[in-house]
Amino acid sequence: MARTGSADVDAAATRERHWVTGRLATLCLASVALTAVAGLVQVSFGTYSMTVVEAWRALLDPAVLFRTDVWAAFLLGGDLPPMERRHLVVWNIRLPRVLVGIAAGATLAVSGAVFQAVTRNELASPFVLGVSSGAGFAVLATLVLFSGLAPFLPLFAALGGAAAFVLVYAIAWKGGTTPVRLVLAGIVVSMIFHSLQQGLFYLADDLGAVQSAIAWTTGSLTGADWEQVRVVLLPGTAAVGLSLLGARQLNLLLLGERTAKSLGMRVETVRFGMAAVAILAASTAIAVAGIVSFVGLVVPHIVRTIVGSDYRRLMVGCVFAGPALMVAADVLARLALAPIQVPVGVVTGLIGGPYFLYLMRRRQGMGDL
Amino acid sequence: MAESKNQKRERITDSSGVEVQSALVGEDLALQYPESEEPVVECARLDIPEGAVTALVGPNGSGKSTLLKALSDQLAPAEGQVTLDGRAVDSYGATELAQRLGVLAQERESPGSITVEDLAFHGRYPHRSFFESVGPEDHEAVEHALELAGVEHLRDAELSQLSGGQQQLAWIAMVLAQETDVLLLDEPTTFLDLHNQFTVLERIRRLNEREGVTVAVVLHDISQAARFADYLVALRDGRLYDWGPPTDVVTEQLLADVFGVEATVRYEPELQVLPKRALAEDTP
User: For B182-244, where are the alpha helices, taking DSSP H only?
Assistant: First the structure.
């Protein structure tokens, strides 16, 4: 009797351990493949063109790959030791752009997924909830008015994003809130911050700053180098890690406030903490890539239709699918109209907008998660 | 008249006169919501006897669900206090309370694609710390809960594919996995067809008999409650009208006063309520 009991438990244990499903594995592998291919295209082509094989060789060259002084220069800053031209182009100009794209894609996707659970709102994303525009305003103000504080960009972005989020919630709150009211409040707050951003342009000293600021408000990876990688590395890793750890809490939040409470969850604390993580994630992306629209909204949707609404799977899927979308979109942004580059936000908007429309047409009663 | 009877009765006794221990006690309760001006429920003393099934009955809006919220510390009483095993419920930590007291709310939300088993594992939440992964006790508890609720065969089914009754049983499996001594269920049989109503009630009964779990359950149907529960608590307009074993509580007078129906009550061979017609609103 006892033996069969423990056998049952073992069987159950095996089942439970396998929350990683085939569909999730497939999604992750496909995303990795897409990211790798897009990244390889990105490092191979451009004004200084080389074949894919040459780029691949340069990328895997042990002379760079295993040199600590090079990595120190990349990751800690400082002077880069002299290198071959091809290596310089691959390693110092094109690769960081891919890496920043990966980081921004992952953090935006994760941020959107967390916001959707915290607000129990399928339409939520950093963009819709005003976090993007708040963070954007803070970054722009820093760049235009206090350019010396640039290394602290993610911090300022997070503060701006948090302020906007609190404002949106305060406006939408009326003894509780609904998806539609949150979205409307988000639009209002976004418009205000957008105006403030526009106003800032007139305070900028030179035209170059204005142009880069405009590119930046659309979301652009142009000119991303190792400095941006350094900026994004710590806060990005922390935000993604915390989101993955919080997946179980988010799952419980999806069961509704009353159930979560009755199971002993301190709902307000968890909700607030996870919102903070999502703001950090979005702000990190915004600090290095500007306001890239729709990634935070669309990636969790795509992943959800493939792996289901279990956040353990959803989060992992987002960490892989976000970068794939972002890096692929950036290839289009950089190379499709060569030699003209468009901001990557234009491409994600053009992909994400219609996809979202399609979702709205296909599904009834969208909004509540 | 009935209310003065309650004031006097401070302790309950079973049929042989032995005093019954109460798992949950509400004393001098006045319950109200932030938006309401007057208390919704006022009640001098309410007992949920240990190891028994207590049914809370009354018409819509009589305060049954409100009372249940107060008992589970989801609504802080404006006056009075609720004690669980002799300790005020609000003095328990959130996790500590969830380890002893399980609640199944009436209105619930769920992502449709969650499986029955995953839902049951959520019941283990208060037994796991933030970083702790699922352990053997969790698996045992979940297996046991699925079996008790009778949904083992549905474990991999997604909630949205199930009938209302099966969903209800899945949720019951979740609170069972919580492994609490006390269980509060808010209208678990409402909106179910007759077969599923009885299935749910029988499973609850079985749980009480096998595990000695204290159950307080809000029920809509007085005749069902009368046959199913060890104790009845009848509420009218936020006041406790009467409480005790069904044979004492269920009378034709109660049905007229509380439910506004004229009915015949038979006590032999077993308690049976036969409602006949609705009484006019202003009948005393």
Answer: 194-211, 222-228
